[in-house]
């Protein structure tokens, strides 16, 4: 599974919403002054989506995806329509969760918050939330909302789909050329605070000292616990200054001292692999996940269509046009 980030809680991920836009659009007959925060731009059953809701969504996505605000009314309308369809999908999931009694316990919420915050200190979280115009309580509510939607999707979609071995084998047979290992190296590293220590350590290594043993003794990098072993990695996965040095080394060769913002580094290349096709066993999990995602997307779209047909949905096109101009 991909690593979670704060974006999950802010609403960019964690909710499988595809926003097809296949809704019945109509003027809802309510006389409103277009553009005011409390004006209703859409209704989904008992849920009302206001101009304020849509504006907040627009501003958050603008910050998260770093896109410039559209310069024309046509572009603004297109972007806001897309986000409105997402809010409609979210409302459909909310109503279905209410109907089926899907809830998030305090224990589940606490665990999710702990996981999301594990790599963010309070100061960094504050900056991220401020940039996305949220306070902590709003963020916490967003986490709960996303987690509830995730539980609903797992119950109604994920529990009903599977990929068997025959499907994986057939896909590999037809598409084996798509699954390749890039050029890779397996390397070890030692990181220290100053150049003098780094040169002294390098002298020990070139003199025949065991790299793993020296890494455990001197290195201040977290991987020192495993003798500095970085495992296999390809181009583009490491900082440029590391990549340039490591990929030019031969197997068994030790690099010169390399300075970075973290400290002073020494690398040893353990093994180098040329690009090659993946064997079936190596590609298996990737193919299995790919096929699961395809089935999930298809089932989700069908499910959302069913929910759309079960609920009354209307969009106030006049209000939407006015706030997008």
Task: Please describe what this structure looks like.
The chain is α+β, with helices and mostly antiparallel strands and 325 residues long. The chain has two domains: 6-160 and 293-323, Porin chaperone SurA, peptide-binding domain (Triger factor/SurA peptide-binding fold); 180-277, Chitinase A, domain 3 (Roll), CATH 3.10.50.40. It contains twelve helices and nine strands. It has helices at residues 6-10, 51-65, 73-100, 106-117, 122-131, 136-156, 165-175, 195-206, 211-218, 240-248, 280-310, 317-323; strands at 40-44, 47-50, 180-181, 184-192, 229-234, 258-259, 264-273, 276-277, 313-315. The chain has a four-stranded antiparallel beta sheet. α2 crosses α3 (73-100) and α7 packs across α11 (280-310). The model is unreliable at 1-34 (pLDDT under 50).
Task: Summarize this structure as a short list of keywords or feature phrases.
alpha+beta, disordered N terminus, Triger factor/SurA peptide-binding fold, Chitinase A, domain 3, three-stranded antiparallel β-sheet, four-stranded antiparallel β-sheet, 325 residues, elongated
């Amino acid at each position: 599974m991909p690593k979670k980030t704060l974006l999950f809680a802010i609403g960019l991920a964690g909710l499988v919403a595809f926003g097809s836009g296949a809704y019945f659009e109509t003027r809802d007959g309510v006389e409103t002054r277009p553009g005011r925060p409390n004006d209703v731009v859409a209704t989904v059953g008992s849920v009302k989506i206001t101009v304020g809701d849509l504006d907040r969504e627009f501003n958050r996505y603008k910050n998260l995806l770093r896109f410039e605000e559209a310069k024309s009314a046509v572009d603004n309308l297109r972007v806001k329509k897309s986000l409105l369809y997402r809010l409609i999908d979210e409302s459909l999931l909310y109503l279905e969760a209410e109907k089926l009694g899907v809830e998030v316990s305090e224990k589940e919420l606490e665990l999710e918050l702990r996981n999301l915050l594990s790599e963010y200190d309070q100061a960094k979280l504050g900056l991220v939330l401020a940039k996305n115009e949220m306070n902590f309580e709003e963020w916490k509510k967003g986490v709960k909302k996303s987690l509830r939607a995730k539980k609903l999707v797992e119950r109604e979609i994920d529990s009903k789909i599977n990929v068997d071995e025959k499907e994986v084998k057939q896909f590999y047979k037809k598409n084996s050329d798509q699954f390749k290992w890039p050029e890779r190296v397996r390397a070890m590293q030692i990181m220290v605070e100053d150049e003098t220590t780094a040169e002294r350590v390098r002298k020990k290594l070139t003199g025949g000292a065991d790299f793993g043993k020296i890494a455990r003794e001197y290195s201040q990098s977290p991987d020192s616990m495993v003798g500095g072993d970085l495992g296999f990695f390809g181009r583009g996965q490491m900082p440029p200054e590391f990549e340039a040095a490591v990929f030019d080394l031969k197997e068994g060769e030790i690099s010169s001292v390399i300075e970075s913002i973290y400290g002073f580094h020494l690398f040893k290349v353990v093994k180098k692999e040329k690009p090659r096709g993946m064997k079936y066993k190596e590609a298996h999990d990737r193919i299995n996940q790919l096929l699961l995602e395809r089935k999930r997307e298809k089932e989700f779209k069908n499910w959302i269509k069913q929910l759309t047909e079960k609920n009354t949905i209307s969009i106030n096109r006049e209000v939407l046009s006015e706030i997008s101009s």
